[in-house]
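Explain this protein:
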Amino acid sequence: MAQPRLLQLHSATDTASAAEAAAGLLGMPASLPPKYFYDAQGSRLFDAITELSEYYPTRTEAGIFAAHGTAIADAVRSSTSLNPVIVDLGAGNCAKGAALFPMLAPRRYVAVDISADYLAKALAQLQRDHPTLDLLGVGLDFSSRLALPSELTGARALVFYPGSSIGNFDPAAALALLRQAHEMTAGGALLIGVDLVKTIDVLEAAYDDALGVTAAFNLNLLRHLNRLLGTDFDLRHWRHVALFNRAESRIEMHLESHQAQWVRWPGGERRFAAGERIHTENSYKWTLEGFSGLLRQAGFAEPRHWTDPLGWYGVFVAGA
């Protein structure tokens, strides 16, 4: 049986991460990138979010693949090699990538996440299930730059980016990432999940559920900073806020201070006024026409898409 390979291309130290977080807290307004959500507890909370009745993206995307999997696979095969290399961005537990194996019979699966070590357990199980498949885990923070050695991907690769994570990038950053993905495919294709514009009540409920799981997920970021940066956040003095910014077509998540307070950490401090917020996440929502246009700008050929019956979510295939 083959053994998974692991390659760490991104090696940010805790010191560098702490410095980035401190800079975000001192910004006007304060903001932090979503990667700080994902310590061990944050990852468990996000898994719980995907099971909530209000959080439609995960099950809706899965439903599109179940209903249209054959057509999606045919579209992918028309732009890639017969047994393509699958490059799975933000692979996590690799479950979504593995679901493509029966349809596409890849010759190699490249799972990309911020830590190769995080991928090790999932890839070990995948190798037991697929003993002859070439598996590679790559540690890379592709939010800054998406680039892999060409010998890992080969020609006509499939870049797979599910889960509507492209929504965490503003339009300019999303375009830059898609251009990098286009370059990486080397004449292959992109398969991507995109959350679409819908009624505000559905959108805001998905990010502010009745059980408070998303609130706990957002607040856990402060607990993470207390460990990483040495801040003294008291979570009791903060509340979760989620709202749809219609002008920007995005859900925003914030943490709002209940009261005037100081937050201190080694070498720094920041006073927050009552009602002042820390901006923790954006999730942009697209129209089918708007995202198709973005793909064309990035250099992809005329994209195809499939949606659920309500038109809440889209799965796109675009050839390079």
User: Anything to note?
Assistant: The longest strand covers residues 238-245. The mean pLDDT is 95. The longest helix spans residues 57-77.
